[in-house]
């Protein structure tokens, strides 16, 4: 079993609210500080090509404001690698990205792009940045991630959460089984396993209970819940549910 299950809080959608009005508020840096104080083990921020939420200046400000690790989500582009190497975050999670998508759809295609990705992540690793790959719970992709030397994978939980929300519990359970199998396979290959995307209070338990999982990254739900109960309460409740499931 992995050590204490970590919670990474994604603050992208605080920046989404800020950008909707074009001003400075709400401040994602303040959200990062609050999340740390509330018990987050790390902060996740995705600097997208179109800068729809997190902006370049936010990365500097967040890293200066927190003492917990920053997980820098990024597409596998030359621009993003330059930015990551300039800032040296604790971790860089490579994600697929398309301009027209509302949020990250599906996992990274590693198996069909392994030569390029191996070369792409090498300078990040050499700089001391812990690279993870955001992938589907597909044996082919998991094995490819191990083959190119990524130490961490983050398995995409979006389909599992979507099926739950739609009430398609047979499909949900099948997807959960894929995640269970994927986590076991990855751990057997020596990969550290993270999971994330779409997790809520209703769906976090079975994922948190998997002994191979070291970290969950949760954002949109926590920021939405914070509108009603405040961010510290939302994080504390999520942490409580994670620990109950793992315990």
Topology at a glance:
Elements: E1 6-10, H1 12-21, H2 28-38, E2 42-46, H3 56-65, E3 70-74, H4 78-87, E4 91-94, H5 114-126, E5 130-135, H6 139-147, E6 152-156, H7 158-166, H8 169-188, E7 192-196, H9 204-208, E8 213-218, H10 220-229, H11 231-246
Parallel strand pairs: 1-2, 1-8, 2-3, 3-4, 4-5, 5-6, 6-7, 7-8
How would you characterize this protein structure?
The chain has helices spanning 12-21, 28-38, 56-65, 78-87, 114-126, 139-147, 158-166, 169-188, 204-208, 220-229, 231-246, and strands spanning 6-10, 42-46, 70-74, 91-94, 130-135, 152-156, 192-196, 213-218. The radius of gyration is 17 Å and the shape is globular. An eight-stranded parallel beta barrel has the order 1-2-3-4-5-6-7-8, surrounded by seven helices. It has one domain: Alpha-Beta Barrel (TIM Barrel). Helix 3 links the parallel strand 2 and strand 3 (70-74). The longest helix is centred in the C-terminal third of the chain and has 20 residues, at 169-188. The protein contains eleven helices and eight strands. With 247 residues, the chain is of the alpha/beta class.
Tell how many strands the DSSP assignment holds: 8
What is the H/E string?
A: EHHEHEHEHEHEHHEHEHH
Write out the strand line-up for the largest beta sheet, numbering strands in chain order: 1-2-3-4-5-6-7-8
**Through-space gap between termini:** 11 Å
Tell me what the CATH architecture is: Alpha-Beta Barrel
Question: What is the makeup of the main sheet?
Answer: 8 strands, parallel, barrel
What structural class do you assign from the helix and strand content?
alpha/beta
CA radius of gyration is 17 Å
Return the domain count. 1
Q: Using the coordinates shown, work out and report the CATH topology.
A: TIM Barrel
Uncertain residue ranges: none
At the fourth level of CATH, the homologous superfamily is Aldolase class I
What is the CATH first-level class name?
Alpha Beta
């Amino acid at each position: 079993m992995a050590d204490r299950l970590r919670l990474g809080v994604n603050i992208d959608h605080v920046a989404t609210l800020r950008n909707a009005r074009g001003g400075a508020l709400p401040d994602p840096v303040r959200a990062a500080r609050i999340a740390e104080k509330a018990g987050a083990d790390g902060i996740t921020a995705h600097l997208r090509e179109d800068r729809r939420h997190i902006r370049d200046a936010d990365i500097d400000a967040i890293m200066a404001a927190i003492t917990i690790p920053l997980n820098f989500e990024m597409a596998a582009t030359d621009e993003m690698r330059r930015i990551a190497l300039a800032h040296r975050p604790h971790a860089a999670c490579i994600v697929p990205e398309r301009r027209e998508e509302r949020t990250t759809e599906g996992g990274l295609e590693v198996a069909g792009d392994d030569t390029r990705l191996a070369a792409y992540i090498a300078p990040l690793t050499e700089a001391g940045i812990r690279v993870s790959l955001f992938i589907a719970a597909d044996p082919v992709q998991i094995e490819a991630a191990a083959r190119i030397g990524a130490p961490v994978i983050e398995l995409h939980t979006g389909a599992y959460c979507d099926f739950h929300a739609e009430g398609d519990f047979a499909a949900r359970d099948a997807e959960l089984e894929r995640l269970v199998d994927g986590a076991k396979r990855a751990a057997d290959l020596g990969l550290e396993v993270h999971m994330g995307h779409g997790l809520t209070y209703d769906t976090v338990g079975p994922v948190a209970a998997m002994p191979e999982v070291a970290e969950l990254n949760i954002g949109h739900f926590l920021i939405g819940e914070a509108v009603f109960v405040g961010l510290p309460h939302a994080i504390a409740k999520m942490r409580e549910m994670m620990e109950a499931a793992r315990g």
